[in-house]
Amino acid sequence: MHYGNPEVIHGVTVMRDALSPVEQIHLLADLREVAKTAPPFSPMTGWGKPMSVQITAAGRFCWFSDRKGYRYITAHPETGQPFPAIPALALKIWRTFETRVDPDCCLINHYREGARMGLHQDRDEADFGFPVVSLSLGDPGLFRIGGTERKAPTRSFWLHSGDAMVLESETRLAFHGIDRIKFGESALLAGGGRLNLTLRRVAPATT
Ligand code: MD6
Ligand code: FE
Q: Can you give the pTM of this predicted structure?
């Protein structure tokens, strides 16, 4: 198997197998530790319905949503505690794409059977000059990406366990989402499902 050769798929930089199978197991173990300190929760959408994914985070910031809207928070909504440090393997992947600054948020999305994520933009960060780097673990997810306007045409491709993907420059503010996952295809997660990590810089580089 080849590790670390980026390709461009529908305008997006994808590094297939950025994490080897053994690295995926190590990262998963780190994420279990994160979940002990910062238990996953289901944020409310603007419509008052819980999201189908469960989220938690590592690093200074976590994305959060409730009836008041969405925002980044620095204390866990249930425990009130700060979020644990970003796992080293996730940092390593970020640094292969962005060397100017480290991420201050590693959002962790957990997709169980039937979970999806609607088309959205990530635009609550201070500096869009920094990328968002995603890492996928477990079952494949069908990733959809369009343009910077919601009505622009979209295209989709599968993200597999170990793949890294980078949204930067023209795709940094592109609408994107996960249509569905192929539940039960990967043996990595004991109960099946998919984990997605998105590493990003929320605060300006100087803070
Ligand atoms: C997911 N990903 O793959 C959802 N956002 O589960 C995202 O929302 C995302 O993959 C920004 C950059 C990369 C992403
Ligand atoms: Fe996103």
A: 0.95
